[in-house]
Amino acid sequence: MYLELRHLRSIRAIHDAGGLAKAADVLNITQSALSHQIKGLEDQAGLDLFVRRTKPLKLSPAGLKMLKLAERVLPEFDALEQDFRAILSGKAGRLHIAIECHACFDWLFPVLELFRRAWPDVDVDIRPGLAFEALPALQREEVDLVISSDPEKLPGVDFTPLFDYEPVFIAASGHPLADKAFIEAEDFRDQTLITYPVDKTRLDVFTQLLTAAKVEPATIRQVELTAVIMLLVASNRGVSVLPDWVVRDSRYNHDYVTRPLTKGGITRRLFAATRTEDTALPYMAHLIRLGRTEPPKLQRRS
Amino acid sequence: MYLELRHLRSIRAIHDAGGLAKAADVLNITQSALSHQIKGLEDQAGLDLFVRRTKPLKLSPAGLKMLKLAERVLPEFDALEQDFRAILSGKAGRLHIAIECHACFDWLFPVLELFRRAWPDVDVDIRPGLAFEALPALQREEVDLVISSDPEKLPGVDFTPLFDYEPVFIAASGHPLADKAFIEAEDFRDQTLITYPVDKTRLDVFTQLLTAAKVEPATIRQVELTAVIMLLVASNRGVSVLPDWVVRDSRYNHDYVTRPLTKGGITRRLFAATRTEDTALPYMAHLIRLGRTEPPKLQRRS
DNA sequence: TTTCTTTGTGAGACAAATTCATAATAATCA
DNA sequence: TGATTATTATGAATTTGTCTCACAAAGAAA
After folding, report:
1. Is A157 helix (H, G, I), strand (E, B) or coil?
2. Using CA atoms, how far apart are residues A193 and A261, in angstroms rounded to an integer?
3. Does the CB of B19 fall within 7 Å of any strand C atom?
4. Three-point CA angle B116, B151, B144, nearest 5°
5. Under a CB-based contact definition with an 8 Å cutoff, are residues A10 and A27 in contact?
6. Residue A159, beta-bridge partner list
7. Bases of strand D lying below 7 A from some protein CB
């Protein structure tokens, strides 16, 4: 049996219009075409879909089953069409995010909350496990937005600046290094450094300070959660380097001190990487705008 | 947008097979055809269903929505096909029954119970309100079986004999007519006759006795339920004429007497009327067989 | 690179759906 | 009941769309 949507639409139209001729009119085909179509369908199925004994064509039991399927299924297709229209008009879409910087969760979550309210039909998600290969994944359309602090010249990928931040040194209040006005690479040599469990190439402490100075901390302890890092630092189990927006977050109200790295401090810039084709999408533009304005508010809130 | 089932099947196949070429193989078309088809679909929709950047074709967000629809909807079509096959093989079908004789409920119900167990996929129903125009309704395929005691020569309609029954007179034990060995037309002239609320042409008392004798009972009282008729008769509110299978039914164990109508009694025969095309259907034949064997058992059970 | 695999494209062949004109059939009405 | 009207069916021609074939193009892999 070779059933097609056309047939379901016809069945439904004939039933609704109460006749073949009127239905043909609704479907914008000739009455003859409809008649041929139904006949072909009945030949395929091997049984009558309509009762011919009566003149305004009436559904047979089998035809009724088919009508019920049509009424169940056709609206779903209309819904899909609606969805597609929404995507086309820019009201809907997918926005899967990969974040290279582990701590970005802290400012991204509130931003996404705002975003969701504004764009309920956009499918927002943060894809874990893509931190390393984030940009290729972006090109392969596995994700649609990458938060990164290392812009590259890649064809088809735009890097839009979000905001600047400062990776700052953090230690317990009574820590010996708390006496210094700023922290240098050498200061880490005999310390226990607490970091996120990611590669050194993706940790500001190393890329911006230690790697160049060829300094290796005495111990490195890897911890997943920001809150736990803060806890360990406050209880003097080690020191860490975290973005300013993290240490100023009121939620982590522990007993610790922060110091700039190097005399003038280090400034880093976060970027939103998007496919060129997507950069101008209304919802994408909106999220980037939120990503530029909201996190600084967080930082000021100290 | 002009979506067809073919497209859903293709989308699903490409996803399942993990590639256009392999999918084309599954679908028994060339890889080229599939490529054309998808392209056409994307042109229609105005957006990409697949990510071309990667080589084994991968679904885009929009394509994924379509896949989900396919996986939701295609099984339903398979189910319909199954249903049709069942109808074709005679395992399934519709069996809507119209009964001209009001009292037939009494033996039909237990028969239908047996039938349902044997043919779970047959849609059994008793259509009310069709008692009068039952045979035309049968021809119009509004019902599939008519229980009737008046066979007619109708084109395309078969009358299969079921069983014989006897309309018997029934009155309260102390009723004056209880003294007679049998009841004649004249006996009704000063009686209150209790009947079902249907036309005289469909009541055995009239068609078999009173109409020919031009006798009219003193009063006619119409009552819907058999049980209520029995109750009224037992409490001497009137007399009635009912088929023997009713008065012998153990459920109506009231205080009444029964007498034959006319000296030798009247014998009537019930028929199952079916469309000629349906008569040989396995489930139809089975129901008719049940209708011939089961009710007599009921009668014997006295 | 080169090679292999996978997808895209154009022209022609083919199949299927539609239309037009008209026949057949049921329903309605006088 | 016959005439009339409304509705569905049919056949042939036409249009439309889908598929195949042969080959080009483009990623992926070696």
Report:
1. strand
2. 14
3. yes
4. 30
5. yes
6. A273
7. 6-12, 18-23, 27-28
**Cα Rg, chain A, nearest whole Å:** 31
Contact B53 A4 (CB under 8 A): no
Of residues B45, B51, B141, nearest to A53 (C-beta): B141
Please indicate if any CB of chain A lies within 8 Å of the CB of B109.
Answer: no
User: Could you name the CATH architecture of B93-164+268-301?
Assistant: 3-Layer(aba) Sandwich (3.40)
Residues from chain B that touch A6, judged by Cβ atoms under 8 A, are 4
Distance from CA of B42 to the nearest CA of A (A): 11
pLDDT band at A252 (very low <50, low <70, confident <90, very high): low
d(CA A73, CA A95): 29
- H/E element holding B269? strand B268-275
- Alpha carbons within 13 angstroms on the beta-carbon side of residue B222 total 7
Which candidate in B73, B89, B133, B139 is best for mutational testing of the A interface (most A CBs within 10 A)? B73
pLDDT tens digits along B228-277: 888 899 889 999 999 988 887 766 666 788 899 998 889 999 999 999 88
Q: Which is the CATH superfamily of the domain at A167-260?
A: Periplasmic binding protein-like II (3.40.190.10)
Q: How far is C-alpha A181 from the geometric centre of its chain's CA atoms?
A: 40
Q: Note whether A5-88 and A93-164+268-301 share their fold.
A: no
Distance CA A94, CA A141 (A): 10
Q: Nearest nucleotide, C1' to the C-alpha of B31?
A: C7
Domain ranges across chain B = 5-88, 93-164+268-301, 167-260
Q: Which residues of B touch A73 (CB under 8 A)?
A: 73, 76
Q: Among A133, A115, A135, which residue's Cα sits nearest to residue A124?
A: A115
Identify all chain A residues contacting B51, using CB atoms and an 8 Å cutoff.
140-141
The pTM of this model reads 0.80
Averaged pLDDT, A114-127: 92
Residues of B in contact with A133 (CB under 8 A): none
Could you report the per-residue pLDDT of B22-76, keeping only the tens digit for each? 999 999 999 999 999 999 999 888 888 998 877 788 898 999 999 999 999 999 9
Which nucleotide comes closest to A39 if you measure CA to C1'?
D9
CATH code for residues B5-88: 1.10.10.10
Q: If you search the block for the tokens 């119970």, which residue do you land on?
A: B113
* Cβ contact, residue pair B76, A73, below 8 Å: yes
Which two three-digit tokens encode residue A263?
A: 């005399």
| Of residues B198, B188, B140, B161, the one with CA closest to residue B288 | B161
Q: How far is the CA of B257 from the C1' of C22 (A)?
A: 70
Tokens of B208: 């078999």
3-state secondary structure B54-92: CCCCEECHHHHHHHHHHHHHHHHHHHHHHHHHHHHHCCC
